[in-house]
Specification:
Two copies of one chain form a homodimer. With 341 residues, the first copy, chain A, is an alpha/beta fold. Helix content of chain A is 43%, strand content 16%.
Amino acid sequence: MNIYDISEKAGVSIATVSRVLNGATNVSEKTKQKVLAVIEQYEYTPNAFARGLGLNTMNTIGVMCADSSDLYLAKAIYYIEQKLRANGYDSILCCTGYDLAAKIKAMNLLITKKVDGIILVGSNFIYDRESDNKYIIDAAAQVPVMLLNAAFESPNVYSIVSDDFTSIHDATVEMIRSGVEDIVYFYNSNSYSGKRKLAGYRAAMEEHGLLYDERLMQFYQGSHEDIAAMTAHLTALRDTGFSFHGLIAADDNLAIAAVKYAKKHNLSIPDDFSVIGYNNSLLSCCSDPEITSIDNKLETLCQHLITTLLGVLGGNEMPKITVFNGELVTRGTTRATTPQG
Amino acid sequence: MNIYDISEKAGVSIATVSRVLNGATNVSEKTKQKVLAVIEQYEYTPNAFARGLGLNTMNTIGVMCADSSDLYLAKAIYYIEQKLRANGYDSILCCTGYDLAAKIKAMNLLITKKVDGIILVGSNFIYDRESDNKYIIDAAAQVPVMLLNAAFESPNVYSIVSDDFTSIHDATVEMIRSGVEDIVYFYNSNSYSGKRKLAGYRAAMEEHGLLYDERLMQFYQGSHEDIAAMTAHLTALRDTGFSFHGLIAADDNLAIAAVKYAKKHNLSIPDDFSVIGYNNSLLSCCSDPEITSIDNKLETLCQHLITTLLGVLGGNEMPKITVFNGELVTRGTTRATTPQG
């Protein structure tokens, strides 16, 4: 018996149950009695109730991420931790790795430790197989679960995402308009976000009739730190006789490798070879020339995630999915776009 | 009453107390009785004892770091988490920021959660003022405390450090031998490790009679991600009429800025301008030319830290301070050294 069951049995939203438990005044007496009757019937003594009475609250949020050495995930954790602290919450972080069993174990650990909510950082927590996402549904039956960069519809789960599809789609169109047509998409993740990005590239290329070869989509499987291996991957592609004069990368580290590839083969950037990265990270400014990159507004996403979580914990009805737009930050690796008209 | 007090009152080492509590056989009967007498006298029921009996063990280590978005700290957390997991331990990470009060709060949180040990990642946890380190001593009275990259002598505290002094000293000497004498030291931290690095630079320059101006030591105060501001800092130094043809950076991001500074002023690298970075991070390979950088063997440090912690938890006597040497990884930003003879 949990807050989700009560909501179902009383025929009201989870937020309403939460409001009743927290003693909010903006609930009708009738609704309140309905919820309390269910609670009494099933002898439910929820954490949220204790919290409403000022008892037993930990003021602690569990934060899970796969790999804290990934520049993007590390940054997200940093923003989330700062914003939680600013609102009087402690954060416990579990680095789970990419293995589902480890994620489930970490999730259970956090629930055992009676955190007030759980934040899943990065889209790799959502799986294609419905049954693989059961651990999230189970956790959400206990505490609100927040997803950063992945959308998943389930009670008490809230998603904050950047529109990766549109960001990559529009960046691809930009590059096509700048006069480059043989554009490779270079990626290293099949996560929820990774799939959305790839779909954005596919759509843009198909719209322009340019998706003529499967080799245009290059999946890199090695370490996300091994720039040399990524560069070698591109050189190997070139060595097959395949020609390409532009590259859109799913992450800035892959874009760094593309710049190195171009230099190695004496391709002038951006005249002979264009590159667009993703994340607008520190790496995009380390390269020479600096890399045009998609900023997916990570800090804004994190800010909204915390606002949503605090709203939920306060018993308010909050949006289930919030979508933000990314922004292309133009630097030295792309050519000017030919004006349309 | 804690394990530290028992050790003192029984006149034996903490490791011996731990061995007795864990029922180890390699303790003399006399010593064992002495320890048990103190425990009985003070009615001590330690976590460690419960652990020895297989009760109440969390198999969880608390990991504290100031800022998980710092590339170096993020990497350390990654290694530590992986190695703990491989040994059957969960890790709870608290990102504390650089403020002492927040560190103390996080430490107390972890103790409350009954972790089996605490790892402090990064040298900023150690303060100059003795009283500011009391929170570490207090925590170590409950559980073993491990320091990565800082040395602090106190019971039940174990330090794993890289010899930053020698690494920077030797790198400075290398650059001097390559024919560069006006070498700026560019740094952004006054942590324990930061001070050791600066001292290494000072010593090398003084040995060669080259520390002729305080301006040779440049402290950068801004964001650790703002490469443009770091570059501007160096340009501002140049604009004062100060001349320098080499730079040793306390971190790779500062070295990236130095490379950008040189390009901006048309200084050829390494002929007109030499650069050495620190950490041998992903950044050192993103730059063009790639940056000569000091590898302080982070993974080795983390491996030894976990080995030491597991040893302590197993009731073994382990070294209080372990020091490793760094290694200069030569890339394109330094000239060949003139052979000595």
